[in-house]
Write a structure and sequence with these properties.
The chain has helices at 11-22, 57-70, 132-135, 153-162, 182-190, 286-306, and strands at residues 2-7, 28-30, 44-45, 55-56, 74-76, 80-84, 90-94, 97-106, 110-112, 128-129, 145-149, 168-172, 194-197, 200-206, 215-220, 226-230, 233-236, 240-242, 272-274. It starts with a strand and ends with a helix. The longest helix is centred in the C-terminal third of the chain and has 21 residues, at 286-306. The model has no long low-confidence stretch (mean pLDDT 95). 23% of the residues lie in helices and 27% in strands. It is α/β, with parallel strands linked by helices. Helix 1 packs parallel to helix 2 and helix 1 (11-22) runs parallel beside helix 6. Bound molecules: flavin-adenine dinucleotide. Flavin-adenine dinucleotide binds at residues 7-13, 30-35, 37-39, 41-42, 45, 47-48, 79-80, 107-109, 130-131, 134, 243, 246, 276-277, 284-287, 289.
């Protein structure tokens, strides 16, 4: 019987692991298919406090894991396939094996929706990105024409943020009006550096042969006309999918599948806590995920203390 099981080893899960391990709770920390989480997919993290020169994402996550293990966290390669949160102890199935736990911290993260067009995967990290706050300031994007794909609040935010660095930001949207809130849409369209490209979809990211982004192939969905737009970066902002399928029907979620928090990191089930991008569609940063992981660990520790476990 575990006192604490943590699902996920991204910034949220590993921070929760550090805190619960230092509280002598010997957490079992399950990596899932992506040990170290999303940050391992990026080369340089420039906005995580404490690293004036930036730090490689993989290196940062390896250090976090070591820090948690130093205090007794049991980090194990394994994916949670099923959960029963109807009563405590909670029952999990991890790669076919049963695990029981008094408390559960869910830090399973969220994935980005992809365009699914040729060149997108090949050129990821070579100009294709899913986070302007994370990557916008990189030298490769400075004073260059950039493309943002999407029409919601996130796309508008990304486009506006990128105007600090780009020569021009092209906002590609499949419709002829933005889906974003009116205030956000008005502000975006009033920005002289943002040029909307309406009724258009990206059909290919160029140029896989050159191993870097040089442009996008666009198709007008009304006329069928195709053209190539030159750019140095493609920021895809068409939404996220939280990794929360597993908890459907057992925990409260919003319409998009993000687990809803009550007080602090508590979910609707006493003893189940949540942290990071699986419950945060607003900030989605390493540092905010880590902060939420810390909060969930403290909440779990206090919950165990108050229930005398
Ligand atoms: C390319 C890229 C660059 C980025 N750059 C930056 C940056 O520079 N600065 C910044 O602040 N943020 C950056 N971000 C955002 C940052 O990575 C995320 O906000 C952060 O990783 C969220 O942490 P998390 O712990 O909530 O989730 P994640 O990092 O997504 O981790 C989720 C974890 O849960 C595990 N998991 C999922 N399902 C299961 C399951 N069923 N069983 C067991 N485990 C499971 C996964 O394997 C993974 O370990 C970037 C994101 C991307 C994609």
């Amino acid at each position: 019987m575990e006192k604490v099981v943590i699902i996920g080893t991204g910034c949220a899960g590993l921070t929760a692991a550090i805190y619960t391990a230092r509280a002598n709770l010997e957490p079992l920390v399950l990596t899932g298919a992506m040990p170290g989480g999303l940050l391992t997919t990026t080369s340089i993290v420039e906005n995580y406090p404490g690293f004036p020169q930036g730090i490689d994402g993989y290196e940062l996550m390896t250090a976090m894991q070591k820090q948690a293990e130093r205090f007794g966290a049991k980090v194990k390669f394994g994916t949670v396939e099923a959960v029963d949160l109807s009563r405590r102890p909670f029952k999990l199935t991890v790669d076919g094996d049963p695990v029981e736990t008094q408390t559960l911290i869910i830090a399973s993260g969220a994935g980005h929706k992809h365009l699914g067009v040729p060149g997108e995967d090949t050129l990821e990290k070579k100009g294709v990105t899913y986070c302007a706050t994370c990557d916008g300031a990189l030298p490769m994007f400075r004073n260059q024409p950039l493309v943002v794909v999407g029409g919601g609040d996130s796309a508008c935010e990304e486009a506006t943020y990128l105007t600090r660095f780009a020569s021009t930001v092209y906002l590609i949207h499949r419709r002829d009006t933005l889906r974003a809130s009116k205030i956000m849409a008005d502000r975006t369209l009033a920005n002289p550096k943002i040029k909307p490209v309406w009724d258009s979809v990206v059909t290919e990211v160029l140029d896989a042969k050159q191993d870097k982004v040089t442009g996008v192939r666009l198709k007008n969905v009304k006329t069928g006309a195709e053209n190539v737009l030159e750019c140095a970066g493609v920021f895809v902002a068409i939404g996220h999918v939280p990794n929360t399928q597993l908890f459907k029907g057992q925990l409260d979620m919003d319409d998009n599948g993000y687990i809803t928090r009550r007080e602090g990191s508590q979910t609707g089930v006493a003893g189940v806590f949540v942290a990071g991008d699986c419950s945060d569609h607003v900030y989605r940063q390493a540092i905010t995920a880590a902060g939420m992981g810390c909060a969930a660990a403290i909440d779990a520790e206090r919950f165990l203390a108050s229930s005398n476990q």
